[in-house]
Amino acid sequence: MPATVPVQPGRGSSQRAKRLGRLTGVPDRLRSIEAFGEAAQVEALIGELLLRLDRPAEAEPLLSRVLGGLPAASRQVRQTAWLLARALDLLDRPAEAAVLRAEHDLDEDD
Q1: Crossing angle for the helix pair 75-90 and 56-69, nearest 10 degrees?
Q2: Using N-to-C axis directions, what is the helix angle for 36-52 and 13-23, rounded to 10°?
Q3: Contact in structure between 49 and 83 (CB atoms under 8 Å)
Q4: Residues 19 and 49 sit within 8 Å (Cβ to Cβ)
Q5: What gap in Å lies between CA 46 and CA 60, rounded to an integer?
Q6: Predicted structure pTM score
Q7: What is the pLDDT of residues 70-87, one digit of tens each?
Q8: Are 87 and 66 contacting, i.e. CB atoms less than 8 angstroms apart?
């Protein structure tokens, strides 16, 4: 259930790292024009890119903060919760991941 990130064939982590670099500062700029929902979407994307770059320790606090600020009924809640649960799994915190999945009605295989 992760957000979709365009991945071009033959492009690896260096391409993802470039994408991550291009997103630096974007959430703050969006918040400065009161585009809070869009800022949260970009932060979730940054969290996903961090996971794809095998950097779950950086993704976890970001995704946790984003999830805490989202409206409860939004579709983005499930996507962000899935990403956060994945980060927790990668950080060897499966019990926390399981609680998060249960809270958001996510299957481990989603």
Answers
A1: 150
A2: 160
A3: no
A4: yes
A5: 11
A6: 0.80
A7: 988 788 999 999 999 999
A8: no
